[in-house]
Amino acid sequence: MSPIDAVGQRMIAQRISNILVALWLGCMLTGTAQPLPNSPDNVGAIKEADIKRDLFALSGDHFRGRRAGTLDELRASMWIAEQLRAMGLQPAGDDGTYFQFFHLQRTRISETSRLTIGNRTLEYGEDAIALAPAIASVVAPLVYVGTGTPDDLAKVDVKGKAVAILFSGNPPGDMSYRRFLFSSMQQRSAALVKAGAVAVLFVSDAPAQAIFERWSGAYDAGRYDLPGGPNTRVFSQAPTIWLPAKALPWVQQPDAQFTNIVNVESFSYPSVNIVAKVPGTDPVLKNEYVLFSTHQDHDGLRRPFIEGDSIYNGADDNATGCAAAMAIGRAFVKKPGKRSALIVFHGAEERGLLGSRYFVDNPTVPKNSIIACLNGEMIGRNAPDSAALLGSQVPHRNSPDLVNIALAANRATANFKLDTLWDRPDHPEGWYFRSDHLPYARAGIPAICFTTLLHPDYHTANDEPDRIDIRKLTNVTRWMYRTGWAVANNPKRPAVDPNFKLER
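C-alpha cells predicted for M28 family peptidase:
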C-alpha cells in the first residue's frame, strides 16, 4: 500500500467531515418528524403489479424514449392521459381536457456553418461540438498548448489565436466526471478568452472521449427554452469547441489555420403537461390541492450506445416517477382525501424544467390553492434501504411542516435510510436544482423531492425497466402517497418558511 499524499489526506478528511455532518443532520431530521394524522389511508391500493405494468409500458421501445418536442413524447402523453381517464381521475388541464400544451424553442448551429482546421473540414455533431450555439466568425492561427498547464501557457502568446488544449484532470469529491468535464471546459475557456484567445478547442483524452460518445448528441441538438427564455438568446462570443480524441493530430499541425463560420437557426416545437385531479371530500378543503409531480419525457433516440441500442428509454428517469404518480392517483380515486389531489406529468423536464416552469406561471388551478408539491424523480435504483429527500434541509427547505410530515411518513412505511449529502448546497452535482419541484419552491409553494439518486445508467441506453427494483419503487411510492395523504387531511396547510432563500 502506497503512502497517502497531502491531497489524499485532505480528501479523506473531507469525506469524514461529510459523514459526520450527514449523521448529525440525520439525527436532527429524524428527531423533528411529527406523527401522522389519525386518518386511515388506502396505501394497500398501491400494488407492485400495477406499478411494474405501467413502468414497463411507458419505458418500452414503443415510445422511443419520449423526447420532448417530438411525436413520441405526445404519444406517451396520450397514453398516460388514457390511463388516468380509465382509473377515474378527472381532467384538470386546459379547456376541460387532461392536457396543457406549450411551446418550447430550440436553438442550434445550422448546417450552413463551416468549421475547418488546416485543410480539414469538420462536421458539427460528428467531429465537433459547440458548447453554446453562439454566433461566431473566427479566422485565426491555431496554437496547441498541450494540457494547458501554467508552464505550457507561459510559452505561448494566446492573444488573437485559437487555442487547442488536450483535456485532462479528475473530478473532486462526489462530482461526476461529466459535470467536471463541462464545468472545467467552461471555466478554462473563459480564462483563455479573457487573456485574448478568440476561440478555445478542447480535445478529448480517453475519459473525456467516453463522455463525448455518450453525451455529444445532447449538445449537438442545441439549447431549449420557453419562448423568450434566456437560452433562446444568441450572442456573438468566442466559441468553445469540444473535439473527439481523433482530432489530436489535427490540432498539432504546425502553422494550422482555424476557421469557424457559425450560423444559428431556431425552431418551435409543441410539448405538453398532463394534469388530472381527484376532488376532495371536505366542502371547504377540497378547494385546496396537494400536487404530485413527475415528468414523462426523456432523451429519445441517440447514437447507438449498447449493442446497437439507440433508444434512451429512461426507465428510472422518469418512468418510475410516472408509474408512482399513476399508482397514487389510483389510491386517491378509491379513497379521496379531504383536500383534492392534483397530479401533473410535466413535459420537457430534460430540456430545462420547461413544463414545470410553464405550469407554475400558468397553473390550471389558482396558484394559491396549491398547498404542497411532492415531486418524484428517479425513484427505483440503488440500495433497497436508501433514499433521499431533497428540500429537507436549509437552504433548500422551504417548509419545515412539509418535511416533518414526509419524515414521519418514511418512518411509517419503508423507513429508508435518508442520504442527506445530496441535499447540501455544497454538493457538486447540484441535484436539488435539477428537477420539477424547483419552480414550485421558487414560487413560494412548499416543495420536496423524493429520489433514489444517480447511478451509472443515468442518461444511457442502459436505463431499462428490467433494471428497476420494483419493490423499492413501490415502497417509495407508498412513502410519497402517505406524505400526500397526511397533507391532504391535516387541518392546516403546511407553512412556508419566511426566511427561505436558495443559494442560487
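Residues 171 and 180 are 5 Å apart (CA to CA).
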